[in-house]
UniProtKB/TrEMBL annotation:
Annotated ranges, domain Peptidase S33 tripeptidyl aminopeptidase-like C-terminal: 417-506
SUPFAM superfamilies: alpha/beta-Hydrolases (SSF53474)
Protein name: Alpha/beta hydrolase family protein
Molecular function, one GO term: hydrolase activity
Pfam families from the UniProt entry: Abhydrolase_1, Abhydrolase_4
Family designation: Belongs to the peptidase S33 family.
Signal peptide location: 1-32
AB hydrolase-1 domain: residues covered: 108-318
Superkingdom of the source species: Bacteria
InterPro entries reported in the protein's UniProt record: AB_hydrolase_1, AB_hydrolase_fold, Pept_S33_TAP-like_C, Serine_prot/Carboxylest_S33
Length: 509
């Protein structure tokens, strides 16, 4: 998610041909015959791949009461924290299952994105979609968060509540050196409280390998997968690692594999376009808090929210609506037009000196576990900025791309975020995937997607040789939202592997 003044990656795999491995093994054996006895056999992943899931009550799982009431079952699967050391520490990945309502095709593993979005409840969101009739819907809390263990932990609950600058809602009035000190302390705290082993193995490659263990535990020879947003990066990474184990994949609201997961300039431009679309819709009403001229909406919005930098609004429950909170709430509301009326009500209240409605929306993304996994993954996989001059240039270009969210305060430099001080090296970087032997995949991209702009979907479809469904609209993702021209071809593909027509493009009637 794009936030202004944010405070706070190519995989390489080497594979030896079997003949070379055999020759090396023979050579090693010959040299060792007259020496010490052979040691224990090398560790393997067999015990992980041979697990049987014990589905049962969701009691004791995060959100378990709601899951159980809706008829879901839960289970956990054991995985190595470090796949390079399978005899080392292990983790437990939490899963949920909603059984197919009709004639079952397969298990459909799902991921809602993030990085770091809890996934156990995603089957609930898909329960009324056509895919629930033919597939067991599998939710998953990825390693490090939610009902999975162990957790990535960087702050206590109290520190989370008070550490808004480190959360990415940087106070524009704080000195740069202080912000960087906080960001460095945040990174060091993650290392102390999480441990370097887990902190270095919460990235996309490790989660993709977990997904393959889950596939085997589900009894599926090949993976059927639906991923949204960052979940598309998980899907494309799985496809790179295990192309022969893919049955079908639908990648909705896709992340461009050649860019950072959350490129600040690209996403700034995306959310400005969504803001402009919202403003044009709002301007149809004479009561729009941003006025009836969409061309002046950014200016009106800045005039409305900038006073909060100096003077936050106190609410009845003693919380404060500050500049960062209202920006977060606005951005959260721009993900989908269904949230636009709520944003209008919140901005109208703000104009009258009240902040309760916007504070409710600002809390949507404020979950410590999710936030910390989110940051850990980005720090492991995005191109790190360790030069203030580069950070300043990115900040300048982001402000230009999204004038609505420019606080307008003067500043000669921008601070380095937490990733500049991250205590473990990158484990992946943006790259062009080169995958041979993949079946046909399906990519769904929205022309006005604010968080994962449309060109990224075109790029992903091209690199994977996937079919591209283009939906004309302004929202984040389009699959399984009741849009027939998207859902019907997607379901047909998932059920009988018939890809949609090439160049399919549609819009809501």
């Amino acid at each position: 998610m794009f936030t202004p003044r944010k405070g706070i990656a190519a995989s390489t795999r080497v594979t030896l041909l079997p003949a070379v491995v055999a020759a090396l093994a023979l050579l090693t054996t010959a040299c060792a015959e007259d020496k010490a006895p052979a040691g224990p056999p090398p560790p393997t992943l067999d015990r992980y791949y041979q697990q049987t899931l014990a589905w049962g009550s969701c009691d004791g799982y995060q959100g378990g009461a709601e899951l159980g009431a809706a008829g879901l079952e839960c289970a956990r699967v054991t995985v190595p924290i470090d796949y390079g050391n399978p005899d080392g520490d292990t983790g437990r990945i939490a899963l949920s299952r909603l059984r197919a309502a009709g004639k079952r095709v397969a298990s459909l593993l799902t991921n809602p994105g993030g990085p770091g979005a809890p996934g156990l409840d995603l089957p609930l969101a898909l329960a009324k979609s056509p895919v629930a009739e033919r597939f067991d819907l599998i939710g998953m809390d990825v390693r490090g968060l939610g009902a999975s263990t162990p957790h990535v932990t960087c702050r206590t609950a109290a520190e989370f509540e008070t550490g808004q600058r480190v959360l990415g809602r940087t106070d524009p009035l704080v000195e740069i050196d202080q912000i960087e000190e906080e960001n460095e302390e945040y990174a060091n705290s993650c290392a102390r409280r999480t441990g370097l082993t887990l902190l270095g193995h919460v990235g996309t490659v490790d989660v993709a390998r977990d997904m393959d263990v889950v596939r085997a535990a589900l009894g599926e020879q090949k993976l059927t997968y639906f991923g949204g947003s960052y979940g598309t990066r998980l899907g494309s990474t799985y496809a790179e690692l295990f192309p022969d184990r893919v049955r079908a994949m639908v990648l909705d609201a896709p992340v461009d594999p050649t860019t950072n997961i959350s490129d600040p300039v690209i996403t700034a431009a995306g959310f400005q376009r969504a803001f402009d679309a919202y403003a044009a819709d709002c301007a149809k009403s004479p009561d729009c808090p941003l006025g009836t001229d969409p061309a002046k909406a950014s200016e009106k919005y800045r005039a409305l929210v900038k006073p909060l930098i100096q003077q936050p609004i106190s609410t009845a429950d003693r919380r404060k609506l500050d500049y960062g909170a209202v920006t977060t709430a606005t951005i959260a509301s721009l993900y989908h037009p269904a949230s636009w009326p709520g944003l209008t009500r919140g901005l109208t209240e703000l104009a009258r000196g009240h902040g309760e409605a916007l504070l409710g929306d600002a809390g949507v993304y404020e979950d410590a576990s999710s936030d910390e996994v989110h940051r850990a993954v980005l720090c492991l996989e995005e191109v790190r900025v360790t030069d203030r001059a580069v950070a300043t240039d990115i900040d300048r270009r982001s402000r230009t791309a999204a004038p609505a969210f420019d606080d307008g305060l003067p500043g000669s430099a921008a601070p380095l975020d937490a990733c500049a001080f991250w205590p473990v090296p990158p484990t992946a970087q943006p790259h062009v995937p080169h995958v041979a032997g993949l079946p046909k995949l399906v990519v769904v991209a929205v022309t006005g997607d604010p968080a994962t702009p449309y060109p990224g979907g075109v790029s992903l479809a091209k690199t994977l040789g996937a079919s591209l469904i283009t939906y004309e609209g302004t929202q984040h993702g389009a699959a399984f939202e009741g849009i027939a021209c998207v859902d019907e071809p997607v379901l047909k593909y998932l059920v009988d592997l018939t890809p949609p027509a090439e160049g399919l493009r549609c819009s809501k009637p």
